[in-house]
Design a protein that fits this description.
With 367 residues, this protein is mainly beta. The protein has one domain: YVTN repeat-like/Quinoprotein amine dehydrogenase (Methylamine Dehydrogenase, Chain H, 7 Propeller). 4% of the residues lie in helices and 41% in strands. It contains 2 helices and 25 strands. The strands form 6 sheets. Strands 17, 18, 19, 20 and 21 form a 5-stranded mixed beta sheet that branches. It has a 4-stranded antiparallel beta sheet with strand order 1-2-3-4, with no helix packed on it. 41% of the residues are buried. The C terminus is likely disordered.
Length: 367
């Protein structure tokens, strides 16, 4: 009996969206998703249900893939087309996976030390990775090595990239003063150091660049988030408090494909998401420099969190015990959905929507 690998073809919903778009009076004029097996045949991608974030709760288990060399994954990222997934392991290897069949495609020994972060530039042409030895490496999208940079003396915990793709920042465990840990701003093209920012009282665990402005958020072991001017201001622009343990991640609603991020800007540029070892997620409003909401639902440490690339109000958080919780900022009292994933979690949203323009060329649709 021939072996057949399960395939998840996510191009169908996008083609149906292109076909139904001329029939809509506006972006909200859409048929509701029917709760039947037949309704799955007419399902649309998330951008087809722009005001229905509940349709993007990914709670159904699809597939498990095993790496050739059994080692923990410390980083995971999707390429900008959403067709390939790249994972970085504890033994310094990159593994490339096919996004539809979950098949192993390629493996290389990328670093000599454990890989900690991996990030694609916004244009999708290059990728940056870092390891426990403080080395940052440049890669082409097909995993061809370009250059290596000794950025820090100790482990680099986070990399964030400017919206222009001309600068990037690194967050590390190393320090020049005993109680003052640092992170740095680099020029991508020349790989030259432009600024070193000091101010945290502990290891800097994560950083994230504002999606449109010159503001960078950093999260540290000292339980605070700091906002910085990446042009080299000596002092932080603001300090956000509220967590009682190490902040593992901070992010804006900016769409990224990165694992284990602890601070993350939202795509609207106003909200900052943080995940911490105190089992809490928090959303801050950067305009008021205040906490907007606290999200309680995990039992163990929250190790990663990520905003949804389409639905501004939706984010997912992952815990050390392998649980996933889906949250809406407008409903912070309890998770809207939850499931058990693995023993611990790294999160990365697929960026398949970025390749939607490909369908206009490959599958012409009369609009």
């Amino acid at each position: 009996m021939p072996y057949s690998r399960r395939t998840v073809d996510y191009t169908g919903p996008y083609l149906r969206l292109l076909q139904e778009r001329p029939k809509r009076p506006n972006r909200y004029g859409i048929n509701l998703l029917q709760p039947t097996a037949a309704g799955a045949l007419r399902i649309l991608p998330p951008m087809g249900y722009i005001d229905q974030p509940a349709n993007s709760f990914a709670t159904k288990f699809v597939h498990m893939s095993w790496n050739k060399v059994r080692a923990s994954f410390n980083a995971v990222t999707w390429n900008q087309e959403g067709r390939r997934c790249i994972t970085g392991t504890q033994v310094g290897e990159f593994t490339q996976w096919e996004g539809r069949t979950f098949a192993f495609e390629h493996i290389i020994q990328a670093h000599e030390a454990p890989i900690r972060t991996a990030r694609f530039l916004h244009n999708g042409e290059y990728m940056l990775s870092s390891d426990d030895a403080g080395i940052v490496k440049y890669w082409k999208r097909h995993l061809d090595s370009v250059k290596a940079l000794q950025a820090h003396n100790e482990s680099i915990r986070g990399i964030c990239i400017a919206p222009s793709d001309l600068k990037f920042a690194t967050a590390s465990d190393d320090s020049t003063v005993k109680a003052c840990h640092i992170w740095q701003i680099w020029d991508f093209k020349t790989a030259q150091l432009e600024a070193t920012l000091r101010g945290h009282g502990g290891d800097v665990k994560a950083c994230d660049w504002h999606p449109s402005k010159g503001v960078v958020a950093s999260a540290s072991k000292d339980n605070v988030i700091k906002l910085w001017d990446p042009r080299g201001g000596k002092d932080a622009l603001a300090t956000l408090q509220g967590h009682n343990a190490t902040i593992m991640q901070a992010r804006n609603i900016h769409i990224i494909a990165h694992s284990g991020k602890l601070v993350h800007w939202n795509m609207n540029g106003n909200w900052l998401l943080s995940a911490s070892r105190d089992s809490l997620c928090k959303v801050y409003d950067a305009r008021m420099l205040r906490e907007l909401a606290t999200f309680r639902g995990h039992v163990k440490d929250v190790t990663s969190a990520a905003w949804h690339p389409i639905h501004e109000d939706l984010f997912v958080s992952g815990s050390y015990d392998g649980s996933l919780c889906y949250w809406l900022v407008s409903h912070p009292n309890e998770p809207q959905a939850s499931c058990i994933a693995l023993s611990s979690t790294l999160l990365s949203w697929n960026h398949f929507r970025r390749s939607l323009r490909h369908f206009h060329m490959t599958y012409p649709v009369k609009l």
